[in-house]
Specification:
Distance between the termini of chain A: 25 Å
Order of helices and strands of chain A: EHEEEEEEEEE
Helix content of chain A: under 10%
CATH architecture of chain A: Sandwich
Shape of chain A: globular
Oligomer: homodimer
């Protein structure tokens, strides 16, 4: 599946934020995250992976290390290995973000 | 530089397509590509890296393997390791794309 539209991937759930994978290989995994208003991804870090978030639509509060910024469409947050990161959507609109992690964390499992 | 707007990164050149790096670590490199009408990235492959393109604005003809598709904003092309890929912009508008490669190809140099 080499070609895809992000809008065909994005899912939302009333239960919790969603991560919908659309590309998975040893070198990287790419997902679309969907966060309804009020949903969040808890701040965490990865021992061996870097992560990049690109906001497609909506806005969210992104934390990288000890800094939190509100990002909207076309804005990016990037977390090097070992750096705390997370996102929350306290706003009125749905947040849709492209998220790439490298390498594939399942390699470590 | 954990936070950035893609629009602050993108550059265009009358000479050839541009790749402007904004995140560089051992696990991944992330660039914004800028292609003026008529510019292209020749089809090529990487022995050890996977690559993902996300179209921010404009449109382009993306090749993955032996398939070429015209992609516009919000559309994605993904090339696993060893698969031919490239992009050309034969259209009237500038093409701006987020491109993530993993791992960092400079590790091999």
């Amino acid at each position: 599946m080499p070609f895809i539209a992000a809008s065909d991937v994005t899912r939302f759930s009333p239960e919790k934020m969603t991560k919908t994978n659309f590309f998975d290989c040893p070198q990287m995994v790419a997902d679309i995250y969907g966060l309804e208003p009020g949903q969040s991804q808890k701040i965490h870090s990865h021992a061996g992976e870097a992560k990049l978030y690109y906001v497609i639509s909506g806005k969210g509060d992104f934390t990288i290390g000890d800094e939190t910024r509100t990002l909207g469409p076309g804005e990016i947050a990037a977390a090097p290995t070992g750096i705390d990161h997370g996102v929350s959507n306290p706003y009125d609109d749905r947040l849709e973000a492209l998220v790439v992690m490298a390498p594939n964390p399942n390699l470590r499992k």
